[in-house]
Amino acid sequence: MKDELIKKRLRYAAVLVIFLILFTLLLLLNIILGSVDVRISDIVKILFGQGGNTTDQGIIWKVRLPRTMAAVLLGGALSLSGFLLQTFFNNPIAGPYVLGISSGAKLTVAIYMVMMFSRTHVVGSYALIIAAFLGAMLSMGFVLLMARTVRSASMLIVSGVMIGYICSAITDFIVTFADDASIVNLHNWSRGSFSGVSWQDVQVMAVVVLFTSAVVFLLSKPIGAYQLGESYAQNMGVNIKAFRITLVLLSSILSACVTAFAGPISFVGIAVPHLVKSFLKTSKPLLVIPICFLGGAIFCLGCDLISRTLFSPLELSISSVTAVIGAPIVISILLRKKVRG
């Protein structure tokens, strides 16, 4: 028993160290690499405030650093959102993109952006998050209604996908009748990207994501009890109804923040929690939640680096890259589930 506990601790420590090394490496690569070459020596000087020309300073401080921080925060948020949804539905395929929650957020953000661009051409960060949250809650409401009617996990996923298609279709109709300026902004945003993020946006997403993530971590104990079944959680003193509502709200806030700033990003919320649980060989929330956030940041940093540099100066949408990497992981989950079943 003692040997097994030591093995678990060593495994966790090893995974944490590997993830931290990958995180640091990708963080540096995202700052160093780009369509414009900036020498490493100049980057070091700029970061430490010791010089560098004005153009290079603008590239590092106004473009690459905010974008890198957005990938870290929003990647972590997506991963945690997926973990909460998988816990809520007790389904490894549940995620904000697959269940149509991201598409619902995309719809309400599109409506808000079209309305605001036609009037003032200014869009508030917090207002975007609120709009995305309302759309996420609307989609989640439909998914929960379907969950009550349909008991099959596969049918629930199909229902979520259909909700996503409906929301995307309505969004396309809205874009069709929008003015030219709104169409350009909506098109760039709807493809999914961390580009164009300002330090003000980073501050807003940091407040929302870090606060929500801290709340999720503080709920580790009731989440762990809930994973063992509703009856067990109830016996441990968990108010099931309030707890389920809390899980939905926290997941919706995290996915809404991502959609508001970066557009819909696919498969991160499914793939990362699954990989983290596989590496740790446990689903204990106290251990999984911090690594899950870190894993989401690593996944999105890596995908953003690929999207920016693979065909530079052309840039791929972040959702296309996450789909190419994440979809095979989801397929492997389904195949394993089929074999076990």
Helix and strand content put the structural class at: mainly alpha
The coarse overall form would be globular
How large is the radius of gyration?
A: 20 Å
Major sheet, described briefly? none
| Number of beta strands | 0
CATH H-level name... which superfamily? ABC transporter involved in vitamin B12 uptake, BtuC
User: What oligomerization state is this entry in?
Assistant: single chain
Poorly predicted ranges (pLDDT <50, ≥5 residues)? Answer: none
Strand content: under 5%
Report mean pLDDT, rounded to a whole number: 85
Q: Please, how many helices? A: 14
How far is the N terminus from the C terminus?
30 Å
Membrane topology: Multi-pass membrane protein
Family: Belongs to the binding-protein-dependent transport system permease family. FecCD subfamily.
Main location: membrane
Keywords: Cell membrane, Membrane, Transmembrane, Transmembrane helix, Transport
What does this protein structure show overall?
The chain has 341 residues and is mostly helical. The longest helix is centred in the N-terminal third of the chain and has 36 residues, at 54-89. The model has no long low-confidence stretch (mean pLDDT 85). The protein contains 14 helices and no strands. The chain is globular. The protein has a single domain, classed as ABC transporter involved in vitamin B12 uptake, BtuC. Helix content is 80%, strand content 0%.
